[in-house]
Amino acid sequence: MYKQFKEFVASRQSNETPAHRRIDTRKVQVECRNRGGNVSLAMVIVNGDYEYGARKLIHLVHEIFLGFLADGPYFDYMTEAFDMNPDGM
Q1: 60-68, long-range: CB within 8 Å, 24+ apart, which pairs?
Q2: Tens of pLDDT along 55-87?
Q3: Three-class SS of residue 45?
Q4: pTM: predicted TM-score of the whole model, two decimal places
Q5: Is the pLDDT of residue 20 over 70?
Q6: Is residue 89 part of a domain?
Q7: Residue 14 belongs to domain spanning
Q8: Number of domains the chain contains
Q9: Is residue 47 part of a domain?
């Protein structure tokens, strides 16, 4: 799952993603980290544009939650990890 997660995050920084949804790597750097099975995101803001960084981080987390977890093959994981009712989604 971590490998696919890293690929998903990297895809949001690629030129294949539409410009309005893409994370500009000249402004922020996004990294995935896995420490003992605990996965996290780290974002480094390069040019001091904190508003851009915060907005893109919120959008990325939203896309991870709805795109990677809910619509992907990890729906069961999401409902279990977040103690969600799958019928209520």
Answers
A1: 60/9, 60/12, 60/23, 60/30, 63/12, 64/5, 64/8, 64/9, 67/8, 68/4, 68/5, 68/8
A2: 999 999 999 888 888 777 777 777 777 777 766
A3: strand
A4: 0.81
A5: yes
A6: no
A7: 2-83
A8: 1
A9: yes
